[in-house]
Structure formats: structure tokens, C-alpha cells
Amino acid sequence: MTDIPVLSDLEFLPFINQEGQLPDQFQGKVGIYAIFDQTQTLKYVGFSRDVFLSLRQHLVRCVSDCYWVKVQIIDRPSRTILETIRTAWLEENNSSLEDEAKWTQPIQVKPLMTDEERSAYESALDELAQIKALKNVARRVEAEIMAQLKARNVQAEIRFNPKLKEEGLLDLK
What confidence tens digit (pLDDT) does each residue in 28-79 have? Predict the structure, then answer.
């Protein structure tokens, strides 16, 4: 078993650098990471086969919680090691992950509908009209996310999967 890295010993890295890019040194790297908000309060701990892609996905799902990240690259990963480190980091921060789904699942746009959008969706005469209504909600929510990213000077390419919008879901391509 490898030594478990102590989270507080790892360096805080900005989630978005001066050039508006995410930490691309983690592209294609297997590792475990902790995400922190503006006040450097732990918000999420995850592990991934491609830390960079996961960070990008978390950024669009939880823009306001992604300001700092600490990453430990694992050379010979096993799920057991990663889960052990994750548990240790959560314990170190007296933290639990109540809202894990918002970090790990596609964004559901139905709960984000305005009254007007809900009315259009519910009064749709057929499935096609419902799909169109859902797509419109997804586009609005996507535009709001993109505006938040722009306000944070994110220059990285962010593209949502257009097929999922029909299902009322937003996720990166």
C-alpha cells in the first residue's frame, strides 16, 4: 500500500489560471483531487482516469464551487487505494459529500425550469413539442453556465453534448 498523501500538505492550484485555462498538466493522468471554493473550503473529493477531463466536467456542473484544486497523481492506481485516500481526505477535513450527484451526474434542467417553461412543457401536445421545450430550457441553462464561465475568464473549449439536451440533460461532449 502506498503512503496516503495528507491533503493539507498538497499545494493549492488555481482551478483557472491567468490565461483562463484549467490545469492541463493533469490531462490523461490518473489521480485523486480535492476541489475547493473561493474561501478554500473543501467541496468535493474525486478520482479519475483523466483528472483534467473530470475537472472540466466539475467546473460546468458547479462553477461557483470550483476555485482551487489539490491533485495527487497516482502511478499505479487501484480503486482501493483511491477510495482509501478519498476517505482519509474527507476525514482530515471533517467533511462528507452530501450533494455528490451535482458533481458527478449530468445537469438536470427540469428542476431549473421557469414557470413559463414548465407551463410550455406541461401543455405540449406531443412528445416532439416536449422535447423542443426541454431543449429550450437546456439552451437557456447552458447560456447561463457559459456566462458564468466567461465572467471567470475561462478560455478553455467547453462544448455540451447536443443529443442530451433533448432529454433535458447538460453534460460535456
Answer: 999 999 999 999 999 999 999 999 999 999 999 999 999 999 999 998 889 9
For every residue of 75-116, DSSP letters joined together read SS--HHHHHHHHHHHHHHTT---TTHHHHHSPEE-GGG--HH
CA separation for the pair 75, 29 (Å, rounded): 9
Exposed e or buried b for every residue in 80-96, given b needs 16+ CB within 10 A?
ebbeebbebbbeeeeee
51: domain CATH number?
3.40.1440.10
Could you tell me if residue 1 is inside a domain?
no
Whether the pTM exceeds 0.90: the reply is yes
Q: Give the chain's domain count.
A: 2
Residue 171: count other Cβ atoms within 10 Å of its Cβ.
16
